[in-house]
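Subject: for your reference before the review

Hello V.,

The reviewers asked for a structural picture of the protein, and I figured it would be easier to keep everything in one thread rather than splitting it across files. Below is the amino acid sequence we used in the manuscript, unchanged from the supplementary table.
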Amino acid sequence: MSKWLATLAMLLLVSGWHAATAGQLLAQRPVHTYSIVARDPDSGQLGVAVQSHWFAVGSLVPWAEAGVGAVATQSFVEARYGFAGLDLMRSGLDARHAMDALLAADPHSEVRQVAMIDAEGGTAVHTGEHCIQHAGHLTGENFTVQANLMLNEGVPEAMAAAFRGAQGSLAERMLAALDAAQAAGGDLRGRQSAAILVVGAEATGQPLQDRLVDLHVEDNPEPLVELRRLLVLQTAYEYMNRGDHALERNDVDAALQEYGRAQALFPANQEMKFWHAVSLLNAGRTEAAMPVLEGIIGVEPAWRELLRRLAAAQLLTVDEPVLLRIEKIGAVNGGD
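And here is what came back from the structure prediction:
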């Protein structure tokens, strides 16, 4: 079946959307402001990032599926552009044909702003003629940026320049685009929530594993600042996971390197330090673990109780002299 025939077939399937929505009143408030959909050409990862003066924008705007594509549906949001757009791309249509099919079935396309990218990096974007100004979009290789209800003109251009010039992971580059949008004036109404979603290049059959980044800031006076903090925190925990995997291979030196990277990103995070120390103890690196434990238990003696419980559950495999040394740490620092 040709792509055009496939488009026609899918239009017949979504014709119920037209019938269901034709008589309905439009939402009275635009939900979104600016977003980016993008693909990393090296890894094949696909993603969406968004910021808005709207509560929990991450539950409405971003859609992505590993090996299929990514969608941002905004302005007067119609969620079907998200799940139906992914369905169409999964069926074999590229982003452009999927977008055309859905726009043709939408009786209110003039108030929609929608962007799509497929697994090959093909893009499609639509800014309806009745989207609230300043509104517009810009496409580039492996990305599209779009904005509506902006304080100033030039936001898509600022986002595109920032994305092209940024370094790092796809998530970091998309966040740079959001930062640039805010710096260029951002939403006329201000800011409230933000989200970022990144999926892998190929589906693994386990959707949760396919979602590499899925972070939401639901309500915050500085949503992009908080989103960046969460992204750094996730990166730190990824280093911790790599350290655990290295220990499973009995590569203690590699594990320590990964744990060190994690703690360099968030040096005040007691939980990272705790599990680092536990891993060191289980690897027989008692002398390296003890200073870490002293710092943790000195701040909060309850960590000592968790060590006891891990030992009781046979998740901490150390001999009795080591347990006694841990007990003394608690006593010296005023523990129970």
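For the response letter, the relevant points are probably these. The domain at 3-220 is CATH 3.60.20.10 (Glutamine Phosphoribosylpyrophosphate, subunit 1, domain 1). Confidence is low (pLDDT under 50) at residues 22-26.

Happy to draft the paragraph if you're swamped.

O.
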